[in-house]
Design a protein that fits this description.
The chain is built from two helices and two strands. By secondary structure, the chain is mainly alpha-helical. Strands 1-2 form a two-stranded antiparallel sheet.
Length: 190
């Protein structure tokens, strides 16, 4: 249980006790406020009784209280609007973070696919290099075989030419021999 404080305050010339759980300074401030309000009303209307001054002071204080309460409610509504807006932004932020996480997952998947494709490309390039090397070896072998074939063709042509020359010589020899035999046979018959 909270301790109650008690102060004595002079209001409109009379001393009144004020009791509350608030600090003594605050209780004195409340009493002084009521006294100032009553004193202002009494100075502006000197013909009013103490009861009428008290009622008018209560009305003025109630008016100030209601206006302050209305202003407070207005400020609270104005304050709640940014709070609602902040809540909306928080929700929007969470949605964006979730969307970003999803896009990060997609990005990571795409990154893995790119890495796989790069590995595949590298492997394919190595295989292509091996194939190129094999093709080069085969091409070299084919060129050597072509050279051998060309050499053999040249030898065949040379041999054909030599054969033709030999056949020509042989025919020439045969013709000479036949002529010789012919003359020999002619000379023998004579």
């Amino acid at each position: 249980m909270q301790t109650k404080n008690k102060v004595f305050v002079k209001i409109n010339g009379q001393e009144y006790p004020i009791v509350g759980v608030e600090p003594k300074d605050y209780l004195i401030k409340v009493g002084t406020f009521v006294d100032d309000t009553m004193e202002f009303i009494a100075k502006t209307n000197k013909h009013l009784s103490t009861a009428m001054i008290a009622v008018l002071a209560s009305i003025n204080i109630a008016d100030q209280f209601l206006k302050t309460t209305t202003e407070l409610e207005k400020l609270q509504k104005e304050q709640s609007s940014p709070k609602e807006e902040v809540e909306g932004w928080k929700t929007h932020y969470k949605d964006i973070v979730k969307e970003l996480e999803e896009k990060n997952e997609v990005c990571a998947l795409l990154q893995r696919q790119v890495e796989d494709l790069l590995l595949y490309k590298e492997k394919t390039e190595l295989e292509n290099e091996e194939l190129k090397e094999t093709l080069k070896v085969k091409d070299d072998e084919l060129n050597k075989a072509d050279n051998i074939i060309n050499e053999l063709r040249n030898k065949v042509l040379d041999n054909q030419m030599k054969l033709v020359e030999a056949q020509n010589k042989l025919e020439d020899l045969i013709n000479r021999n036949e002529q010789k035999n012919y003359y020999n046979n002619k000379n023998i018959k004579k």
